[in-house]
Amino acid sequence: VTKRLLSVGLALALSIAVAACGSSSSGSESSGGSGSPLVGAGSTLVAPLMSKWQSDYASKTEETVTYGAIGSGGGIDQITSRTVDFGASDAPLTEEQFEEANGVEQIPWALSGTVPAYNVEGAPEGLKLSGEVLADVYLGKITSWDDPAIAKLNPGASLPSTKVTPVYRSDGSGDTFAFTNYLSTISPEFKSKVGTSTQVKFSTGVGAEKNDGVSAAISQTDGAIGYVGLAYALQNELSMPLIENSAGEFPEPGVKSVEAAADAVSKIGPNNEISLADLPASAKGAYPISTYTYVIVPLESSKAEQLRKFITYAIGPGQEYGPDLDFAPLPKQVAAAGEKAIAKIGS
Amino acid sequence: LEAGALRHPVLRARRSRKDRIGDPLLRGLSGLAAVIAVAAIAGIAYEVIDQASPAISKFGIGFLTTNDWNPVTERFGAAPFLYGTAVTSGIALLLAAPLSIAISIYLTELAPRRLRRPVATLIDMLAAIPTVILGLWGILVLGPFMRDTVEPALQSVFGFLPIFSGDPSAFGYLTAALILTIMITPIITSVTREVFETVPRELKEGSYALGATRWEMVRQVVLPYSRAGIVGASILGLGRAIGEAIAVAQVIGGAYGIHISLFHTGGTLAAQIAAQFQGATSQLQKASLAYLGLILLIFAVIVNVIARVIVQRGHLKDTDVTPTEVEAL
Predict the structure, then answer these.
(1) What is the percentage of chain B residues whose pLDDT exceeds 70?
(2) Across the strands, what pairs with A168?
(3) Ramachandran angles phi, psi of A291, nearest 5°
């Protein structure tokens, strides 16, 4: 009996191995078919909006889109190796990444922001801060919450002498890109010492993983300040400081102020890259750390038709679901640039 | 029945045919399994080296001593992570080994019989906690406790030591080391416990008969007899600590420098790979992370070889010692 069991077991193992080989080869063949669903991966920031799009798009067109929220860096990797039909990234591709991805284009398809969050016992709600102060905090030059620079922005407020603990993302993140891009625009010193990227070497502070890790680190540390995605901060009701914009105001972070920032910038860079870090002084009510998030599509694809259709939906009718999920709708000229870019897919 | 069956010519023919197919088949399939395992290791090593090659050719061996990790300037080095790995795993081993030995002694020699199995099971279950949960617990509970209670206490007593200087922090080497301690204690305990159980009853009873107290018996019989096993178990735990990525990444605070203070944030090889591989901004960064992986792989091999050598030597000594010990007793 044991012998028979053994032989059955071995036969089973063999057949599984054979089946595994067979299925992997058939899988790669079927991915080219036009009937299969679109597959995308990338940004976690856009994921809540994406899941709304998926269900709405499926009910309107009966076409399914699958999306894996694996992070912006992962999305770029996957579209570069063409294991997905589209990638999504909060940070625009670098030149090197563009070259490697070989024949892709990026289209801004959602608009949001990165917001600082803080936890300081004894400090007022809605503490006012400026880009210079944030830069100095992350450079390790401001080390206590009663620093004159902070006091000057908050006249009359009582500030504790608690030590400042800056918290940053230790993994690659679109929020880190938006945040460092903003601080580099404001502070030349930050630009030269730290720079702009999805991953940078901060001079001081505590690194934590993902939005959850950052918000946990903030909530557990008196005197901590960090940065997270706008939607995440609003949904988890973190206390957010008010950041001074270039018009000298302190707008509430939210869909309205992000929209105001996007409206103030009409310049669309090469590869549809749009930076909202350097706002003009005329931008009233604009939130200073606003950011676009991008979809990255290959110019040549067996699913070009499906891609065109879905992205046209996303930057068009799909935008109306944004505000409920703390995304601002795309400004008209950005949507128009997007449509132009969509036309290039598969042509 | 067996003998009768063999005598029957038809049955014997069938049996031998079965043997003709069965034995080579078994040998072939099990051999194949072994080859797959070896090929997997070789494949992994090749892939890691291949991926790391841009960084190897750019930074060379100096990578090991470069104390920097800057994705913006693309200057990468392994020194901060080598240091972090050595410090956190070392502390974890220093804390976990004595703890595990004490637990094992209690469970095999001292605890009431009906308590032994439940307690042993509970300790084994500690090993089943997913590391990401342990890391989260580290952020929310252990970290703040370290910052508010343990680290200030250490500082007030041993503050003159540079390793306890600086501001207490919830994130850092020490918190990561404690998480690792919790993680490897059940592993070391379960192996040492089993080793202690193999100590021959005659040796123990002989020791008692000579008037030894329980402590003397443990010290003179159980511990020497189990030395190789204890070392092997500890190295097993050390290997686990060196390779742990997720929980460490959650509590060590992801900083890229070498800091003498154990309260400071830092990084380890495995944690750095886990945190950054997915979102690496350049090929060079990816290659550098693979280079870290290669170092980790070499680290793991060295640790394993050391463990094997120690265990082997211990065994030889044990076989030398045991008969004389038995005679002496």
Answers:
(1) 89
(2) A207
(3) -155, 145
Decide if A196 touches B, using CB distance below 8 A: yes
Size of interface A-B (CB pairs under 8 A): 110
Distance from CA of A248 to the nearest CA of B (A): 31
The amino acid present at B42, given as its one-letter code, is A
User: Is residue A113 classed as helix, strand or coil in its secondary structure?
Assistant: strand
User: Does A280 touch chain B if contact means CB atoms closer than 8 Å?
Assistant: no
For chain B, give percent helix, strand, coil, nearest 5: 80, 0, 20
pLDDT tens-digit readout, B45-103: 999 999 999 999 999 999 999 999 999 999 999 999 999 999 999 999 999 999 999 99
A160 C-beta neighbours (distance < 10 Å), count: 14
Residue B150 DSSP class = I
What are the angstrom distances between the C-alpha of A44 and each of A69, A81, A172, A319, B271?
5, 20, 12, 17, 21
Q: Say whether A208 sits in a helix, a strand or coil.
A: strand
Produce one character per residue of A78-96: b if its CB has 16 or more CB atoms within 10 Å, e if not: bbbebebbbbbbbbbbeee
The H helix count followed by the E strand count for chain A is 13, 10
Question: Could you read off the pLDDT of A171-227 as tens digits, one per residue?
Answer: 888 899 999 999 999 999 999 999 999 899 998 999 998 888 899 999 999 999 999
> Tell me, what's the pLDDT at A16?
53
Measured between CA atoms, how close is B2 to chain A, in angstroms? 14
Side by side, which strands form the sheet with A65-68? Answer: A65-68, A38-42, A86-89, A290-298, A104-119, A224-229, A165-169, A206-208
- Given a cut of 50, the residues of chain A with pLDDT beneath it are 1, 18, 20-34
Helix, strand, coil fractions of chain A, as percent rounded to 5: 45, 15, 40
In whole angstroms, give the CA distance from residue B183 to residue B242.
11
Question: Looking at chain B, which residue has its C-alpha nearest residue A191?
Answer: B72
What's the pLDDT at B24?
Answer: 86
Q: What is the pLDDT of residue A211?
A: 87
Q: What is the DSSP letter of A328?
A: B
Rounded to an integer, what distance in angstroms lies between the CA atom of residue A81 and that of residue A76?
A: 9
Complex ipTM? 0.79
Closest CA to A42 of A104, A85, A97, A99: A85
Burial of residue A267, with CB atoms counted within 10 A of its CB: 0-12 exposed, 13-18 middle, 19 or more buried: exposed
Name, in order, each residue with C-beta under 8 angstroms of A301's C-beta and a sequence gap of 6 or more. Answer: A85, A307, A345, A346
Which of B2, B21, B72 best probes binding to A when mutated, by most A CB atoms within 10 angstroms?
B72
Report the length, in residues, of chain A.
Answer: 347
**8 Å CB contact between A184 and A196:** yes
